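Batch 3, record 17
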Amino acid sequence: MADLTLIDALRAVANGSVDADVGPRPSDVTVHLGRTGDLPAAVAVLIGPHSMALATVVATDETAMPDGDLKVRYVFESTVPGAPDQFVTLLISVDAVHPEVPSLTTMVPAANWHEREMQDLFGIVPVGHPDPRPLVVHDGWPQGVFPLRKAFDGSRRVPVEPAEEFPHLIAEGEGVFEIPVGPIHAGIIEPGHFRFTSVGETVLHLDARLFYTHRGLEKRMEGLSPLDAFYVAERICGVCSVAHGLGYCEALEQIASVDAPPRARLIRSIALELERLYNHIGDVGNVCAGASFHYGSATGMRLKERLQQMNERLAGNRFLRGLVVPGGVRLDLSDDLLAVLAATLKDTLAGLNGLMRHIETNPSVVDRLDDTGVLQHQVAVDLAVAGVAARASGVDRDARRDHPHGAFASPEPPALHVVTVSEGDAMARMTVRALEARESIRLVGEFVRRLKPGPLQVALAEPLPGGRIGIATIESARGEAVHWLRTDAGGRVDRYHLRSPSYHNWPAVALAAESAIVPDFPLVNKSFELCYSCTDR
Amino acid sequence: MLRVIMNALRTGVVTTRYPAELSVPPDRFRGAPVLRPGSSLPPPAVCPAGALSERHDAGRRRHVALDLARCVFCGRCAEDPWSGAVAMGRDFELAARCRDDLRIEVAADDVTVPAAGPAPDADVEAARASSEIHRVLGRSLHLRHLDAGSCNACDWELTALLNPVYDVRRLGIDFVASPRHADGVVVTGPVTRNLETAVRRTVEAIPDPRVVIAVGACAASGGIVGEGYASAGGVDRVLPVDVYIPGCPPRPEAIIFGILVAVGRLDARRPPREG
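Prediction for the assembled complex:
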């Protein structure tokens, strides 16, 4: 059970009632604050003396329940390396007629988008938010319509209405001008709008407008059988298919109180590392493209293609879809396929080492990357930045170690070398990717050695237990993703929420770009390599 | 520099010869599901994307239909207890000019495969459009990519078309930066509400005649996303579509096939039908 000191400290700062419970997992704590006004003081206790960071914020519409309220859960996690795998949830009830909560954004910058999203989708107003512009809904979205409220029928289109220009910060002065870019870009990339305010080539300010690919997937999953909703979760993002599929499955397996068999856990972790590998190697190639080093970009693409062709042999899909399923894995790895895997990874390692040598000894590439798009350590901490971007700015966080999942959650997990460097520039992010790719190759070898014959799946009986919450955290190629799933009384999906790593990292890209010149933005952006689709959902 | 050139020479040619040579996907590849007429065909609820439907004809025979445009190729309908009735085939060259060509229907207790193809008028229209595009554009095609809310899997497969293995420029196909320079557009994603305006404007900016190619299940039909408050449920809800490429995502060669169908260099897939 959680430290009593934490709960005592929360009691000491609160004027209203403070009820503490174990959950969602046995190692977690949920603290129900009787008064919403106590929230800032309680959060100050968590982020201050207890060194915690915001992991996710989940709003739910519980107006059909006896107390008839909306609820907001602020989920925190420790940032101390080696701290126990624990989530602390602060739970507040919000009146559905006058839904207001105190904004945390000035105290916890990472809460910024969470609060704006909750305002758009639930109509919960973060009072005192410094930037309460709409985030998720664009283009003349009707006033007072909140799609994630239960009373809203999400199955019908809401017509697009003519809208005013995107509201953004306007700077004035001699030589200040604006460069609008996107949402449709001059390449095969995902849609987002970037509004640069610049003087000459120097970026003064960058305002990014995302959520163009908001598909309403969380609403889409509500009311489905959790076994059907899995196929939606696996398709939230292409290049995070394994990570998001696995996160959903682990949350669901908690609800069902089942454990995937050991062989399945190993195969899941192999898949997760293979996903990281093709992403990281592809991203190294893409950074070369951003730095106009075409041999590097062609080599990156070729190595990535080889890995994706192997994925298709292993899983029947080049993005490894259809391998992980609720309860375990759907396909086994035969000796023949393991031989293919070993040979491919051997060649990939040689190819990657050669590519990195060419990059590191090429002054024109190194010069573009060094000191470009610097993300300061403190900014990374304040924004709860995840994954490669965090570790390249000296933040020692990796969910494989901090929230063990897959084979890392087995009794004697393999050692994981968490790579960190401190420079925080584009070169640092590329270096971390290359080192992590090598670590992934090593880990796959380790997982394969541990494979023993055994079952691949446990059955999940329908209906699943009702009214339960599962929370799972996965280190995807982009960083830590937090999945929150709850079943309704009938065991169907009541609410699912994904906080992807990109969700916390996008605001950091805008800040890192402000240290660069406009022509370097594509390079800065590629060095972060974030997903739009798992941010927008 | 010399070392870079030496390495490039040592790597040799890695480019595929598809479509001049056949491409055989690996054993586990999940292509078009093959429905075997018989009594144990799965109920529609098995499909998470809503690609399966059923009806009973006048003779009370059950018919099960599969919409390849919606299919996400997850393989669930081919798992037990339906593995005898449905098998995941390896056919990936599925692009069609007509949405109806992607519908396969079988009777649950009979071996007949009823015609589900388009009306003859649609055939004539498709042939006319194809020959017009062929006449104006020749054999080369410059395309603009348009992400209409995809999960990025289809986008990455379009990127793969430019890698040294698929290198579609060898076929006269290229991706251009501006819609003004394009002969057509490849659209991925179900057309989200937030992108609907941008999608319309981009396509309107492409000079006529233009081809619109819907890549992947979401673009072709809404796929797993379907229609909702934030999604139109497929490109043809917003714009006329010339070619549909099923897949979740379609493998790069399936996209090449579809693009070549769009310019009339290959024949579209036709559904099997009664003699």
